[in-house]
Amino acid sequence: MIIHNLETENSILNQFISEIRDVSIQKDAMRFRRNIERIGEVLGYELSKTLEYKSKTIQTPLGTKEILVPEKELVLCSILRAGLPLHQGLLNYFDAAENAFIAAYRNHPNNEDDFEVIVNYLASPSVEDKILLLVDPMLATGKTLENTIKALQTHGNPKQVHILSVIGSTEGVEYIKDVFPENTHLWIAAIDPELSSRGYIIPGLGDAGDLSYGVKI
Fold first, then answer.
1. N or C: which end of the chain has fewer CB within 10 A?
2. Which CATH code, of 3.40.50.2000, 3.40.50.2020, 3.30.9.100, 3.40.50.12280, is assigned to 2-51+70-213?
3. 102-110 LR contacts (CB < 8 Å, sep 24+)
4. Model pTM score
């Protein structure tokens, strides 16, 4: 796996990350969602540098201009519900992409630490020979991404896979290395060192879905 950890270089991305982590600022759900969206835009811009391009002739009011534009079809697949703001940030830049959505959640039997990831909804176009962008803001254990790519196998074999996350854990990143092909790219804004006994990233930021859309029951 090819890992692009954007926190290794200073940029305005640091400001967005600091605000989504800050317990006083993250109480503003609209600002939290917008910061996640902006992080998606930054990740998308960096990812765009690795795509294949083709020349296209553009007619302007005063003449023509040859411009290189992305060549391959993209499919954005986000994990509901936490992935929606990040998905929107990527869609702001890849507005011609097709879209897929998958519902995956953790099930803690008897409220114990151990859990399983359950996938119970998938809406996706064909991903055959396309570039698949898997969007999951919190890469904790990596099991959600594993179940997502398994569910998408019924929709074809993508030419290449890019994973886009806001914050991940060292353990989760190591886990998905064995799940995805070697040429998979991971684009991530920060990697934290620990997981709690219930599989939450430390220091992380909390539950991205709850912070974006309210606490669920």
1. C
2. 3.40.50.2020
3. 102/77, 102/78, 102/148, 102/151, 102/152, 103/79, 104/79, 104/80, 104/144, 104/147, 104/148, 106/144, 106/199, 108/198
4. 0.90
